[in-house]
Amino acid sequence: MTNNLVSVQNIAKSYDGKHPILKDINLELLAGQIVGLLGPSGAGKTTLVKCIMGMQSVDHGKIEVFDTPMPNRQVLGKIGYMAQSDALYDELTARENLIFFGNLLSVAKADLNKMIEHAAQVVNLTNDLDKPVSDYSGGMKRRLSVAIALLQSPHLLILDEPTVGIDPELRQQIWQELKQLKSENKSIIITTHVMEDAEQCDYLMLIRDGYAISQGTPSELKEKFGVDSIEEVFLSAGRDK
Ligand SMILES: Nc1ncnc2c1ncn2[C@@H]1O[C@H](COP(=O)(O)OP(=O)(O)OP(=O)(O)O)[C@@H](O)[C@H]1O
Description:
By secondary structure, the chain is an alpha/beta fold. Helix content is about 40%, strand content about 25%.
């Protein structure tokens, strides 16, 4: 067993066999690490996380999760994943959604109730839990999706743009929870185009047009480019490319 929970080696990916979407991507994720994939819309972040989970095949290179070559159904079942689009039952209340997804986790009912209360509190939905999801705003649906992903508490959690439509205060609250999971040695991959999110990651891959234009810890990257913020790193790295 290596220390790497996820190992991505020299992968390339196209959807049509002609136009590469990911080009020579390398990434290692350790236990207890939060890795951020940062890049503009269309850069290839979602494609990369889908390749990591084995939901998309790669044209070249190798991906291992928990020391197992992907794709692998059993490993996929152990990864907590929040997709970019909310997969919720609109006609059910938020609580009913949480119970539905929680029941897939085979935990005792009393434990599930506690887990639901905790997850709802992290995303500030406690007072809206009994409203139907059809009455929710876009941001509330996003928060409910985050709560569902948090319920599972897996060793590897992949969150595709969890903070879209979420206000800064609540974003901090979600980050506190992610850091709590990290302190329990759990690992997280998060995609984002929000610089404040990027600053909080342990390790960043900056992606543009399918290339990893730079990667390292936030402080390594700032030092490398001689700048004070990840936003400036991104701009400098893009110019260099
Ligand atoms: N199933 C697909 N078939 C063909 N092309 C696709 C498919 N999914 C994504 N793409 C293309 O791959 C490129 C990268 O998309 P991807 O969704 O990975 O980017 P992203 O960085 O996650 O963007 P966003 O921040 O908008 O979600 C885009 O040009 C997109 O149009």
